[in-house]
Automatic annotation (TrEMBL):
This is Thioredoxin. It comes from Dongia soli. PROSITE patterns: THIOREDOXIN_1 (PS00194), THIOREDOXIN_2 (PS51352). InterPro entries: Thioredoxin, Thioredoxin-like_sf, Thioredoxin_CS, Thioredoxin_domain, TPR-like_helical_dom_sf, TPR_rpt. Residues 10-122 form the Thioredoxin domain. Belongs to the thioredoxin family. Keywords: Disulfide bond, Electron transport, Redox-active center, Transport.
Length: 306
């Protein structure tokens, strides 16, 4: 799998490089047949060039090989600059598959530069198909869906060695740990994540699954007791709530949703709307397209707005 993830990806030193007239065809035209190549025409005396250079280099580095940057000193390559009709600097051209596809003149805000690089990365990705990392993530997700949690975990871990911020791999590895009921490892993994990555929908969903599994584990041994309490008193909302936690963690998601909806139907304000808030967490954990999420949301809306 190292070979799979590493194949076709430029080495770190090739992502940003200086070039000249003699190497332009190799570094730009030929290279752009694989990935989009940005060409930055600059000069040492140019103030805006000094502002633009570090920012566009950072944006290209963050693209992790999906885009390359070639820097051309116009003072040392005047003929090439003339051929490219560079009249003022910084001048930036983007090439893909041997042809110029985009560009701009003058310094740009970092936000616009990031959008420029992201747009080029998408053009390249759409034309060339999924990257090796994306293919590895798909392979891992297929293994997870098939119940091969060990293989899925190994592939997700390998992806994260190559791309530590890959949200799909982070969420996938967390789901693997939950599937293997290793809550301690899942908790340690979550605690090591940066706060920003937790905002990603896939990671947030996996985090919600962990929290529900942790809650359900506390109630799992009390299932007969909780069911007996509800049978004796259908309005024992605390018992219903805990039973829903335990059932959701055990995979009995439809039954868990039913119990929480029953609480909302009878007393939506119970315990500061705890049942409704727990339902929202259920929906987040299952994902927005899960059939139980869709039907559960409809039933909840019907109760709340009836």
């Amino acid at each position: 799998m190292d070979q799979l993830i590493g194949s076709g990806k430029p080495a770190a030193g090739d992502v940003v490089k200086d070039s000249d007239t003699a190497r332009f065809k190799t570094d730009v035209i030929d290279a752009s047949m694989q990935v989009p190549v940005i060409v930055d025409f600059w000069a040492p005396w140019c103030g805006p060039c000094k502002q633009l250079g570090p920012v566009i280099e950072k944006a290209v580095q963050e693209a992790k090989g999906a885009v390359r940057l070639v820097k051309i000193n116009v003072d040392e390559n005047q003929e090439l600059a003339a051929q490219m009709r560079v009249q003022s600097i910084p001048a930036v051209y983007a090439f893909f598959q041997g042809r110029p596809v985009d560009g701009f003149v003058g310094a740009q805000p970092e936000s616009q530069l990031k959008q420029f690089v992201a747009r080029l990365a998408k053009i390249g990705g759409d034309a060339l198909g999924p990257s090796p990392v994306d293919e590895a993530v798909e392979q891992a997700e297929a293994a997870l869906a098939a119940g091969d949690h060990g293989a899925a975990s190994a592939i997700f871990s390998e992806v994260l060695e190559h791309d530590p911020g890959n949200a799909k791999a982070i969420a996938g590895l967390l789901r693997c740990l939950l599937a293997m009921n290793d809550l301690a490892a899942a908790k340690e993994f979550l605690e090591g994540l940066e706060p920003e990555i937790l905002k990603d929908p896939a990671v947030a969903s996996a985090k919600a699954q962990f929290e529900l599994a942790e809650q359900g584990q506390k109630s799992a041994g009390k299932l007969p007791e909780l069911q007996a309490r509800i049978a004796a008193n259908p309005k024992d909302f605390q018992a219903r709530y805990e039973l829903a936690e335990a059932q959701f963690a055990a995979g009995q998601k439809e039954e868990a949703i039913d119990h929480l909806l029953e609480i909302v139907r009878i007393d939506r304000a119970w315990n500061d709307q705890a049942a409704r808030l727990q339902l929202v967490k259920f929906f987040e954990a299952m994902g927005p397209t899960d059939p139980l999420t869709l039907s559960g949301r409809r039933r909840l809306s019907s109760i709340l707005f009836s």
